[in-house]
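Problem statement: downstream parser choked on a complex file, so we are re-checking the raw output for the fe (ii) ion run. The parser issue turned out to be on our end (a line-ending mismatch), but while we're here, posting the original submission so the record is complete.
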Amino acid sequence: MTTPPQTGELEPLIQELSRLAERPSQSGRGMPVGVYISDKFHDAEQKKIFNQEWLCVGREDEIPETGDFLTFKISAQPIIVVRLPNASIHAMANVCRHRMMRLVDGRGNAERFACPYHGWTYGIDGRLMGVRHMECTEGFEKERVFLPSVRCETWKGWIYVTLNREAEPISDRLNELLPIVEKYRMEDYVTIFSEDREWDTNWKLLCENFMEGYHLPVAHRSTVGKQFPVQDTVFDSRGRFDGFTYQCFSKPDGIQVGLAHPENKTLRGKWRKMSVMPTVFPGHMYVLAPDHLWYLSIQPNGYSKVKIRYGAAIAPEVLTSHPDKRLLIDEFKTLLDKVQEEDRHLVEAIFEGVRAPLSRPGPLSWLEREIQEFIQYLAHRLSG
Ligand code: FES
Ligand SMILES: [Fe+2]
């Protein structure tokens, strides 16, 4: 057995990942600790993964009206994603063309974006509309200035962006996921909240945690882990894991959350109890159940912090038939917040663990198969 590298040097870490990626899943092992605590490894991820891939910024119904916007960061690039008057969704740099101030934070509705530094004002399509005291500046033509646009595409209710002009369309990238998820009609689910948080951990620890159900009956025993039939988990059987992977699990009868509502007339047979958990690499993960979905989309902030966009949506028939929608939403959010808090505790404590001098990664369970697939994805992207 090889000794995992304990240094932060890039090449030995990538070589070790490539070796791990070659192992059959029944002898999979966790990643070397250096991948979580190396600046060089983090820089390589930013360059070869986050600057290249499609990243999810949220759901289309989070910005339904003209001028509704949300912000996001693709590696070092802050962006604005905004609904235009023609109902299309536009993404552009969130950096002023004057002296490069970030224009806007958070989310909201805007008729225009005014730079908080010297007041240059942009239309929601990114055209420079208003400036002051620039009449003496030689060669300055307001009409020729606009915020650079960023590729933005939607797929089944999700909004994806990329800095990569050459990336294949998101619909091609996720084409094989379509038959697995389309029966749920998730694009019709109604978003009930979406918010950002920042946790003190490496982004990959968070993804690994989301991708394995092994911890559910133990670490989530006081919330969603009760009676969780992890032994029945069904994995992606394509044998290729470049763009995404997923697992399916069935919920027991009689539980409150996770089953098809009687008014759901489209899901049939076993699918009325089945949830799918897709992970769209590198960082869009969701649980898609017959009655709800919840999602995470991550933005690494250095190797030791990760910003998480966290949101949930409910199937329309569940909302319309409930006598007290506010109560339903509040109860649902309270439950998910508890689960999130349980996971935050886990992945922050693991981050302490990986930095401890005596720590070494151990063998994986068959229920952690997606971690092996994640390793294969990372090795492929970083060694290419
Ligand atoms: S930096 Fe935006 S107006 Fe000066
Ligand atoms: Fe969890």
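For whoever reads this later: Residues 96, 98-99, 101, 115, 117-120 surround FE2/S2 (inorganic) cluster (ligand 1) (CB under 6 Å).
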